[in-house]
Amino acid sequence: MSGIATDSESLVGVEHLRRYYQRSVAARSGSVEKRTESDWINDNIVLCGLNLALEETNSYLMSEMPDLATFERWILDKNGGHIDPLTLERINRAVEGLPYGPEIAEQTREIESADDVLTAEDLAFWNENGYVIVRDAIAPEDALASETAVWEQLSMSPDDPSTWYGKPIGKGIMMELYHHATLAKNRRSARIRKAFAQLWNDPDLWVTIDRTSFNPPETAGYTFQGPHLHWDMSLAEPHFFGTQGILYLCDTDADQGAFTCVPGFNRTLAQWLDSLPDRSAARQVDLSKHAVPVPANAGDLIIWHQFLPHGASPNRGRYPRIAQYINMFPTRRRENMEWA
Hints:
Number of helices: 11
Helix content: 25-40%
Distance between the termini: 40 Å
Oligomer: single chain
CATH architecture of the largest domain: Sandwich
Radius of gyration: 20 Å
Strand content: 5-15%
Order of helices and strands: HHHHHHHEHEHHEEEEHEEEEE
CATH superfamily of the largest domain: q2cbj1_9rhob like domain
Shape: globular
CATH class of the largest domain: Mainly Beta
Strand order of the largest sheet: 1-8-5-10-4-2
Number of domains: 2
């Protein structure tokens, strides 16, 4: 890793990790340092490159208050005790803005030269509506294995609806299941990576380590837990392009708690905000009458533009909606750090 500044005492070998850790320590003491856009981008590169989930990592740092060496041992444990040196080189070079070496550059070229996954019709639909369905993003057997991992994590039975209720799932329908081998395999899908590369027009992508979800049918004693329509981005201008994605692990009908969004906001968000009498109340506007559910099959991935209001929906079917969240972003990106 010639030209890369590294900490000789580091167990992991990622220089920016120390800065991330130090800001966590400061936050615990009440001294919150405002993150720059560069810090935010580099934090995400480091977390994704090291196979770390944001919420799980921050929860660990805040609850356990480890020293840096203990934190690094925790990271190694999440990676099976070893991190590929090429991965570390890629992280450090991306953070420092240095060009990749030939082996990493070749991996990027392979993605760039792969056959397109999204057709011209898919891209036209994306431009108009702000979302697209990637059919057969993973193999049927991988979708089934991933669904099974969710059932096992929850200690529930797909054949016994009485087991679907009474236990906490997580936050609403969101599960803190990140590191199962089959979920990791899904994140490596060549079809998924190529689809994101087409939308970003950039093959140099980092994949997020995100949650799974379990949205069971409503009953007399159980109502939909959310999330309802929302944005995960700042509504302050300027607005920057971004994507989000959800992978269905079982066949999902429109009334089965499907992913829901308001199509077209990728083209009209700024104008819609300008039309409001009070932009600060934008998140309180009820857009549900404009929302559409997006049904798809097990193994299909829905990618949406982050300008779209989106959420899950009440499950009025007979089987849970089970899904994995997957997103990708390039090394070079922008993000508005002013939250509104």
